[in-house]
Design brief:
The chain is mainly alpha-helical. It is built from 14 helices and no strands. Helix 2 packs parallel to helix 11. The longest helix has about 35 residues.
């Protein structure tokens, strides 16, 4: 993992009389923590393809819903196969609803669930894991016990219980419930990484120079775990997709909005799995689920190389702009 020492470099540069401005320090931080990982990841074809697939779903969930009418009964004849009637290009279900309309209008709630669930679990895990690993002592023991308790609670029964009690209808709330204790494993992993980082020389130098804890965490610790956090954010997004589809398919969540799990449930109950004439009703939402998950898988695999310091160092040598301001 590449080491970054912004706190140390700022003071070191000033002491050396090189006069790096605050804007240069921030530009250096953004370049090392954000832009360089993006450039390294973008060199992998899987990152490019995964990004294109994810961007397609984002467009479908934002622009697509303004171009495609919401699903209503009688948009076409019942059980129209795909590519037979271009007014309903992906075919229809037993009510004559367009499967294209139901697929497109199920995308925005799914994106809201993914964003809420992935952000909730990742931010909470990063905050707890970082503070626990860096502070140590009583703070570490309390947060570790809290994390261990969360890890010992079975996830699926807890999710089913919460959905039965609260009956959530807001997609963001559903996303948070699905990842209600998924953060615990990531928090333990981040804590382990922070334990190995807090004794590095540049972190010790920041402490000796009197840098506050918040600044050490933001400048010296978190940038070094950002690639790992990014990959786990993507994995959390995939878990929200499968979790939400499963809950809607099993009927544990109400049908207040379109969802691919509801479409699968309706198709299965109508016998679509036993008839080739209506099999498309089952396949269209499956392709939507697999396509979005496949995009996240490719994106995560493409960004795995961010963990390899040799690749990052070799990439930095080939990019002139990767030179830090205080090194110029």
């Amino acid at each position: 993992m590449a080491e970054q020492n912004s706190s140390f470099s700022q003071s070191d540069g000033a002491a050396g009389g090189q006069g790096a401005s605050q804007a240069d320090i921030y530009r250096e931080w953004i370049d090392m923590a954000v832009l360089t990982p993006i450039r390294v990841a973008w060199d992998d074809w899987r990152t490019q393809v995964g990004s294109i697939i994810i961007a397609f779903y984002l467009l479908m969930g934002t622009v697509g819903v303004t171009l495609v009418d919401p699903p209503t009964q009688g948009q076409g004849d019942r059980y129209v196969p795909p590519f037979q009637d271009w007014s309903v290009p992906l075919g229809t279900n037993n009510l004559g609803e367009s499967l294209l309309s139901s697929t497109v209008h199920a995308t925005p709630p799914m994106l809201q669930m993914i964003a809420a669930g992935a952000v909730f679990s990742t931010v909470l895990a990063t905050a707890i894991g970082t503070v626990s690993g860096y502070k140590g002592g009583a703070v570490d023991r309390i947060l570790t016990v809290f994390t261990d308790i969360a890890m010992t609670i079975p996830g699926l029964p807890l999710i089913i219980l919460l959905t039965a009690v609260f009956e959530p209808t807001n997609p963001a709330v559903i996303g948070i419930i699905i990842t209600i204790n998924a953060w615990a494993g990531l928090a333990r992993s981040i804590r382990s990484q922070v334990l190995s980082l807090r004794d590095h020389s540049y972190v010790e130098a920041s402490r000796i120079m009197g840098a506050p804890t918040r600044r050490i965490l933001v400048d010296d610790i978190i940038p070094n775990i950002m690639p790992y956090v990014l990959i786990n954010f993507v994995n959390s997004a995939r878990n929200v997709i499968f979790g939400s589809v499963a809950l809607f398919y099993l009927g544990l969540l109400g049908s207040t909005h379109e969802n691919w799990g509801i479409a699968l449930n309706n198709a299965y109950n109508d016998g679509a799995i036993y008839s080739l004439d209506v099999l498309h009703w089952l396949l269209i939402p499956m392709f939507a689920i697999v396509g979005l998950s496949f995009g996240f898988v490719l994106f995560a695999q493409g960004t795995e190389k961010l963990f390899n310091p040799r690749i990052r160092a070799r990439h930095a040598e080939t990019v002139e702009d990767d030179t830090a301001p205080y090194q110029e």
